[in-house]
Amino acid sequence: MPDTQTVAARKPWLDPAQKPFVRIQKVTKKFGDFTAVWDVSLDIFKGELFCLLGGSGSGKSTLLRMIAGFEAPTSGRIEIDGQDMTHVAPYDRPTNMMFQSYALFPHMTVERNVAYGLLREGMARDKAMERVAAMLKLVQLTPFAGRKPHQLSGGQRQRVALARALVKRPKLLLLDEPLGALDKKLREETQFELVKIQETLGITFMVVTHDQEEAMTLSSRIGVMNEGEIVQVGEPNEIYEFPHSRFVADFVGSVNIFEGRVIEDEPDFIRLASPEAGCDIHVGHGVACTLNQTLWYAVRPEKMRLSRTDPGGAFNRVQGVVQEIAYLGNLSIFRVRLDSGKVVRATRANVARVDEEAISWDERVWVSWTDTAGVVLNR
Amino acid sequence: MSTPAAGRGPMTRLLAALGLSGRALVIAVPLAWLALFFLVPFLVVAKISLSEAAIARPPYTPLWEWEGLRVTLFLNFENYAYLWRDALYLDAYLFSISTAFISAAVALVVGYPMAYFIARSPEPRRTLLLMLVILPFWTSFLLRVYAWQGFLRDTGVVNGLLTGLGIIDEPLRLLQTNFAVYLGIVYTYLPFMILPLYATLVKLEQDLLEASADLGARPVATFLTITLPLSVPGMIAGFLLVFIPAIGEFVIPELLGGPDTLMIGRVLWNEFFGSRDWPVASAVAIVMLLVVVVPIVFLRQIQAHAEERVK
Prior knowledge:
The complex is a heterodimer. By secondary structure, chain A is α+β, with helices and mostly antiparallel strands. Chain A has helices spanning 7-10, 60-68, 110-120, 125-138, 154-166, 184-201, 212-218, 236-241, 246-251, and strands at 22-31, 34-44, 49-54, 75-80, 83-84, 95-98, 172-176, 204-209, 221-226, 229-234, 256-265, 270-274, 279-283, 294-299, 305-307, 317-327, 331-338, 343-349, 364-368, 375-377.
């Protein structure tokens, strides 16, 4: 009974009655004195494409390797489909992994690489070859079946690695930086292909990446990791628009952060005095805080407005000088030095091909934002 | 067109004036070395092998004679025909090849687990273990072979231990047997097997072994399907490094072997110093060279093929 709705649309994580498919409970991993993963608990649901996002050394790869069985947790428990997997050897787990290096067997053809897992589990040769042929067709590698890995391009190798990991129909597919070695154009194409394959086969994917754009495009949910801990779990837009902390706001996309002190605390708005911004910040909703508390206000560059004329009002507007403009084609990034000395980033979509009125270098401009543009952070 | 002398050092300009380039000079040095110490002696030996033995000094007839401006050439292939007619030589060649082959095979079986263990050891211990493998080279090869005599003779350490423990009453005959020759060759050449094997095994990526485990292969299956095929180039290199010198080995069969250990090195020595028949000895040497070169060329071909496959 295939579900017609995608997981991203069903959102099983919002339903407390749903049973998670992968259950990571209080997992910690130490290498000597170094703590790679610290007290991570995470539930992943069937059919999800879950991204672990973090910088290098954040512990995301170690967590993935513990799920694959290459590392044993120092403490905690890992459960897949209701079965305790904490200390099960990798060759006995219902998981398969796609390695960052692809780890294709150099002495075997594409066909034998893909067939390897099936033959190891004792499947009859002709049946295995049938499955391999179908899988190679899915990843469009049929004409390359007889080639060795070194005779393939980077993109083709990546697809062999994917086919090899998928052909055993694992309950859970683990992907370590799956698109890291591809150039930008190929990466974008492959992202969509990956999502399509994932939806076709209905296998639960867990992807490790340091690339926030990749995480945004691929995933049903993202877990952001920092220094061995999961700092926030949420859907891509949640992570982007409602970050819990300055770290997440800054790591995912770019952001302008102003420090401020609460000077008015009302049920339906608060006001921050921010010398860093150079004006008062008016927040159009209530926030759990106390007077004089220090808070941070984070606004994304695309939610910053630039204008030559005063937008009016008593707050959320400051003046500055354009320092730099980066033209990216679809949009331009402006770096504006505010009168307070802080440099902010603002983007503008280039909707017209030629803009006679375009703001240029060294111009004095107003920077403003609405009272719902940003998010208040207390850490 | 460029001016060759512009922007170059005085040395380069000097060489250019002599019609030489730096690159040619670099190649010329080893080439001259090989010509002087390998090619010329080889030609001398080849020349002697085509002459006849004589009671003279040197103990062979000249290959050519000058009479005024006329030169007379005396080519004598009788020595080679003699090697072919007398079964002794063919037996010696075959025995040498089989001894070298068996020794190399045993060294492979013994050396592989050692190389594997070293390659899988953590970094600082690896260096120590490799040092231990090379350590015997710090003592003279000859002394070490003599030491084996002390171990293996009837009143030696091994027999003393076995009789002392009451396992045997009569001492076992260990010295002057083919067994002792195998033992000596394997012992002496084992480092040459371990080092190339180690070099291939240590390069084997951990990722490949993890991928194999991840795809459901137990450790033994991973070893047989991934590690072993990928270490074939190292196995061939190690095999050649033991096999080739073992064919012409003289010291080990002389000191550890019995009277029936008829290896070609010993035959050569006897022919040269015993019978003082330099031409036959030279013919034996030339044939031995061919016997060694042919398997090398053959195995190099296999190795190149295996490396191509691994890439």
